[in-house]
Amino acid sequence: MTIPFTPWPAELIERYIENGYWIDEPLTDIVARHCADPVSASRTALICQQRQFSYAELNRLSDALAHHLHAQGFQAGDTAVVQLPNVAEFYIVFLALLKVGIVPVNALFNHKQLELRAYVKQVQPSLMVVSERHQLFKNESFVSELNAETPTIRNWLVEGDARFGTSLTEILMAQQKARGAEMADFTSTPATEVAFFQLSGGSTGTPKLIPRTHNDYYYSVRASAEICQLDTDTVYLCALPAPHNFSLSSPGAFGVFYAGGTVVLATDPSAMSCFPLIHKHRVTMTALVPPAVTLWLQAASDFQNYLTSLNVLQVGGARLSESLAKQITPVLGCQLQQVFGMAEGLVNYTRFDDDSWHVFNTQGRPICKDDEIKIVDEQGNEVPDGIAGALLTRGPYTFRGYFNSPAHNVSAFDTDGFYRSGDIVKRTTTGYLIVVGRDKDQINRGGEKIAAEEIENQLLVHEAVTNAALVAMPDTVMGEKSCAFVTTTDPALKAITLRKHLRAQGVAEYKLPDRIEFVAHLPMTPVGKVDKQQLRQTIQQTLIIKKEKDV
Ligand code: AMP
Ligand code: DBH
């Protein structure tokens, strides 16, 4: 059994194979390739607090878990929903699932009932992997609900203290002891098939899943490792959530594993968590979103000499201002690399030998010469370099369709199979992209994406809410925050009540509106849609007036 996905057309497949992008190896090769040679196998792959794992150990532990899962009857084509924090088990579980051909969705640790339910509903998993550290899994109530709603779920693996399901730690220990030299009688899905689902930031009512094949993802990992010049001396700090496409594959932990370097896990991107780790493990490279950069710049003076090993700071996920970009080398003492990527595929990097103008002012250029880029005006005609337009792309690691979403895919792609990224960009004459805006209904809250429609739907569930529109408002640290405009039948309705309501609906905390404005009615465009442009202007004006009053 394999997972259905929208394939690339035959002539492109041929080109991607011919040009060496698709090499017909499963993603598990990223770690397994180091294990034949004893010197490579003994290198440190992963550091998670006090625990260190060599490549051999990482491979062995994921083998052990794969054996266990296979013995339990799990097989290729099964799906799993995984939600783990930044711990070694994230990679061990991921590799184990890939080895058996179980296709996971890796949820973010700050996701809650709403998001997890949406993933479970879409993939109908047979396996759940969760952590006891998450508020939702401290007791069994949500587990029972999901079990009742989802007859496909056969097993729960729990990281930490298992109050339900099976303890992941115990399985790993028992399997390691029990395993002799038995041969594996399971294999990953073919490299041409779906390896896992990546999460889309989304712009629709329910979060969409992105099927990623071994072939396409492994190419993006190898090419990224090369562009970022990773080698066995690379020590990469994973400070963003481990499942994020940026910290997983651009070049991320997978790129570092591929190159034989070391991944150090941080629990979060704060300077307090990261600076001591950088110091202790002589970290050479890390990846951040812009708000974390602001915090690092502020904290750096209190941590003199902590960052001397750091060579490269990658910044992506949201637009980095030129002024922040220019402070990075003087204050943090490392090189900046801008990264503009998307879980759907296309990733752009500034290169290490670029001049400073490109590094400060552009979001880089695509990985591959076969990344095809179209920048179009509102009529769909391509615009010349230097003119802003909507970015569309297709290529050897850009997906061709969201999972089980035929209707949405019609509008998400053009008739040539180019993905409409929803970003407004300009191309320089040198082929670099500058992100200038967005035409998707999404808020980019410092790199965390919020689909407006998802929150509007949840606001509408409240009995006193008659209409709701979520828009971005400017914020100096986050870049953007969210503001909900709400019409109501209850003049006494309070913002705090609506926030409580959203929490009760199981909405992740970062998606809660930062501000709620009650209005008599929402402005409409001539075609009868909510005029979000006007709402963005309204909230901007309100903030300016408030600022003037404050000073
Ligand atoms: P996602 O679909 O959640 O993977 O988010 C990808 C989106 O994040 C892109 O389409 C952009 O809107 C945004 N993004 C990522 N990197 C950057 C960047 N360096 N500058 C501006 N926007 C970015
Ligand atoms: O924001 C993103 O999704 C992103 C940013 C940088 C990404 O997917 C990536 C690099 O691969």
Report on this structure.
The chain has 551 residues and is α/β, with parallel strands linked by helices. It folds into 3 domains: 160 residues, ANL, N-terminal domain (Rossmann fold, 3-Layer(aba) Sandwich), CATH 3.40.50.12780; 207 residues, ANL, N-terminal domain (Rossmann fold), CATH 3.40.50; 108 residues, GMP Synthetase, Chain A, domain 3, CATH 3.30.300.30. Helices cover 34% and strands 24% of the residues. The strands form 6 sheets. Strands 2-1-11-10-12-13-14-15-16 form a 9-stranded mixed beta sheet, sandwiched between helices. The radius of gyration is 23 Å and the shape is globular. The structure holds adenosine monophosphate and 2,3-dihydroxy-benzoic acid (DBH). 2,3-dihydroxy-benzoic acid (DBH) binds next to helix 10 and strand 14. Its EC number is 2.7.7.58. It is an enzyme of class 2 (transferase). Pfam families: AMP-binding, AMP-binding_C. One of its GO terms (molecular function) is nucleotidyltransferase activity.
